[in-house]
Amino acid sequence: MSQEDIVIVGMARTPMGGLLGELANLSAPDLGAVAVKAAVKEAGVKGADTIFMGNVLSAGLGQAPARQAALKAGLDNDTQAVTLNKMCGSGLQAVAMARQALLSGESDVVIAGGMESM
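RE: above sequence
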């Protein structure tokens, strides 16, 4: 696959709330799942080979927050999930890693994003 073959076909986000506001009771994977499910629907794809999700405040979330978001969004059990923490650059790093997965041929359809709840 070449650089020109890579396209963004869907996107979504959740509303932004204030610190300890109305959305604070929702976990990052819960919020991430909402965005992932909406992006997949908008893109018109069945699922993805891999999902890369940035998450910084992962204490108390349990193991593999990206996997949790993927499963809650209805992605297949065999979807590879990678959680990464690069502080404020986590979401951008997820996009960069998605690009690499596509260029290398490792994946054909990739989801990339970030998720947080404060």
